[in-house]
Amino acid sequence: MDEKRESRSRSSSPEFSPLAFGEDLAPLPEYKAAGTTALDFSGLLDEPLKLHEDLKSGCGGMLWPAGMVLAKHMLRYHQEKLQTARVLELGAGGGIVGLTIAKGCKIIDHPLYITDMVDMESLMQHNIALNQVDDRVKARILNWGEPLSQEILDYKPDTILAADCVYFEPAFPLLLQTLQDLLALNPSATVFFCFKKRRRADMQFLKSARKAFKVTEIEDEDRPIFTREGLFLYAFTKK
Ligand SMILES: C[S@@+](CC[C@H](N)C(=O)[O-])C[C@H]1O[C@@H](n2cnc3c(N)ncnc32)[C@H](O)[C@@H]1O
């Protein structure tokens, strides 16, 4: 790893504590007890997705609002195209978006990757098993800002998902770097990016993204509802 990246990635792991909100960290949703939720996204899934939530490994251990919006969007508008896509989810937490796709789209050509930091690995594995999609979904560690693994380089994802990954300011440049690396690896890839604005600084991320990528607001019939809740949904592509 080059020196610049190594030093930046050291600040990449926000500690989750529902009581301790640092300056850099947007206020997190209320602490939630561990449990399993079933989701069918208003009937879009024939068989509900089961998602175990457990905050003991970090804030990705619960469902976040942008994950719900992005999962539903992908199911509603991209179901057919996703069957043959090479999908990679960043900051997947329990795997909400990737697992929804695995449940709702008949993935035929490629496995689908859900990725996060090492602390989330067991929850991702647990949710893969819970939904019996072990044959189609792989959980991998992908730390933003670090060089992509050979496995991901070979996979060359064309559909990148990121939901609620804008909440910890020191991680913004790391996430941006990973998105840049992925779009350099596959210049025709699309990043589906959904986040909830919690602090003014969150819009700084978008400002940097606009400099680095072509940023397009995506059509969605739920837009009026999620916009009212401070949620944004974009596609990033290479300039
Ligand atoms: C707010 S959670 C969102 C989880 C899920 N995408 C959702 O919408 O429910 C943000 C996720 O980003 C992951 N994350 C934060 N910093 C990261 C980093 N530097 N590298 C990789 N993942 C990171 C966290 O572990 C967490 O799972």
Automatic annotation (TrEMBL):
Residues the record lists as binding S-adenosyl-L-methionine: 64, 91-93, 116, 144, 163
Documented EC number(s): 2.1.1.-
GO biological process: methylation
Keyword S-adenosyl-L-methionine included in the entry's annotation: yes
UniProt region (Disordered), positions on chain: 1-21
Main subcellular location: cytoplasm
PANTHER family reported for this sequence: HEPATOCELLULAR CARCINOMA-ASSOCIATED ANTIGEN, PROTEIN-LYSINE N-METHYLTRANSFERASE EFM6
Family to which this protein belongs: Belongs to the class I-like SAM-binding methyltransferase superfamily. METTL21 family. EFM6 subfamily.
Purpose of the protein: S-adenosyl-L-methionine-dependent protein-lysine N-methyltransferase that methylates elongation factor 1-alpha.
Name of this chain's protein: Protein-lysine N-methyltransferase EFM6
Organism: Podospora australis
Upper lineage: Eukaryota, Fungi, Dikarya, Ascomycota, Pezizomycotina
